[in-house]
Design a protein that fits this description.
The protein is built from seven helices and seven strands; from the N terminus they run ααββαααααβββββ. By secondary structure, it is of the alpha+beta class. Strands 1, 2, 3, 4, 5, 6 and 7 form a seven-stranded mixed sheet that branches. The radius of gyration is 28 Å and the shape is globular.
Length: about 190
């Protein structure tokens, strides 16, 4: 105590600092214990699993944990099933009306008649504004050379894309693929 007094610090301040320090140490001990319990609970829990949809779309554990993952799963299953099964009406149910006008059935059939998408993997889903989301995924597409995308003329193309999911005027979730190709990277399969 004499050293505190030597520096001109009153005894009452030393007592308050000691009491406060004890409170800080007590609080730190409580919070450290709570943190340790949370860490143990997480470590003791089984590792979160990825998900594979009925159509074979794979979701990483991070993407599978997204609160509306099931909605996005149904949307992507229908989108890729529509393309792979050559079912225009199914594909049409997954995109906004502006895309239907851009790709009426005859034009769509011509563009996708030889396309098959596979190895579809959703890496991440991020929430957006107004119930929207951004879905980051990769997949491969095989098609005849004449149906290949203009930026990569190849029979097998590896895609890395970000599909915005928005709510249409009827309240349905749809893929706003009108943003492509600005949100897509395409290259020959390796």
């Amino acid at each position: 105590m004499r050293s505190w007094l030597k520096w001109g610090i009153p005894l009452a301040v030393v007592v308050l600092l000691a009491a406060g320090g004890g409170g800080v140490l007590l609080a730190q001990n409580v919070y450290d214990t709570e943190r340790d319990q949370r860490v143990l609970a997480v470590q003791g829990a089984p590792a979160q699993q990825g998900v594979v949809s009925r159509s074979g779309v794979e979701y990483t554990p991070d993407a599978a944990a997204y609160p509306d993952q099931r909605i996005i799963e149904g949307l992507l299953d229908n989108y890729f099933d529509g393309i792979n099964r050559k079912n225009y009406e199914l594909w049409k149910s997954t995109v906004p009306p502006s895309k239907w006008r851009e790709l009426p059935q005859s034009k769509w059939t011509e563009a996708y008649d030889t396309t098959r998408d596979y190895e579809i993997k959703v890496h991440r889903i991020d929430p957006g504004q107004d119930r929207s989301a951004l879905v980051m995924l990769s997949f491969k597409s095989e098609q005849s050379l004449e149906d290949a995308p203009p930026q990569v003329k190849a029979t097998c193309v590896a895609w890395n894309v970000v599909y915005p999911v928005v709510v249409d005027e009827h309240g349905n979730a749809v893929l706003d693929i009108s943003k492509l190709p600005n949100s897509a990277i395409a290259e020959r399969c390796g």
